[in-house]
Amino acid sequence: MQTKDQRTALEQAARKRIKDSHALDGDAGRLAEFYRGWASAYELEVGRDEYCGPVIVAELAGAVQTAYLARERPAIPILDAGSGTGLVGVQLDRLGFRTIDGLDLSEEMAEKARQTQVYRHIRAGVDLNGPLSGYPSASYYITVCCGVFTLGHVRPDALRELARVTRPNGFVIVSTRKSYADATCFEDEVRHLQDEGVLVPAQCLNDGRYIAEEGAHYWVFRVPEKASAPAEHRL
């Protein structure tokens, strides 16, 4: 049985690892190497910091499906962008979603996600700071992205690709750590994409729970109807 001092030391070590990840400047090689070494301990360590982002993002996906999407949950294609070890996928599966694809930069993290057996497909080696090659436009009814719009990871302009792979009248749901939102041009990017007609903010939960040391904002975006929307993909 761990003593209080041992638990405190483990919590401090977990928080240091999280903080170290924020200094990686979005460099794909450094991020892949970092998460290669973190994959085996990731869930234990973020759990020590009371990480509740995946539950909130999944619940938001469930809310928009109930409110706006006529299809039954098992048939709704969802992309979990930056799926990590599969924490969001497990929560989506708990809520009845069954057609879940995932992608991540790290092969080691993606392998952990595969082991959950809740994903239809998982791709590794995908950098969210670049084009999502291999993902056709308008493929998903809902795209979720939890834990990657954070310092040292994904730039705000990655929103454009998330919107591209989402169907017209579909939804993009993302979390942004408060420190990330304060330090980046995320809200400027949102306004820019809204002006272009790429996405429309439907809801923002400001200063919600995220981890013990810091809150996050949770964004729900709707992809507007296009003049010539592509035919429905049968995934």
Number of domains: 1
Query: Rg from C-alpha positions?
Result: 17 Å
Instruction: Based on Cα principal axes, name the global outline.
Output: globular
Mean pLDDT: 90
The CATH homologous superfamily is named Vaccinia Virus protein VP39
| Number of distinct beta strands | 7
Q: Work out the oligomeric state of the chains in this entry.
A: single chain
User: Architecture, according to CATH?
Assistant: 3-Layer(aba) Sandwich
Primary descriptors:
235 residues, alpha/beta, seven-stranded mixed β-sheet, globular, disordered C terminus
Q: What is the secondary structure topology, with strand pairs?
A:
Elements: H1 4-21, H2 28-38, H3 42-48, H4 53-68, E1 77-81, H5 87-94, E2 99-103, H6 107-115, E3 121-123, E4 140-149, H7 159-164, E5 166-177, H8 178-183, H9 186-196, E6 200-211, E7 214-222
Parallel strand pairs: 1-2, 1-4, 2-3, 4-5
Antiparallel strand pairs: 5-7, 6-7
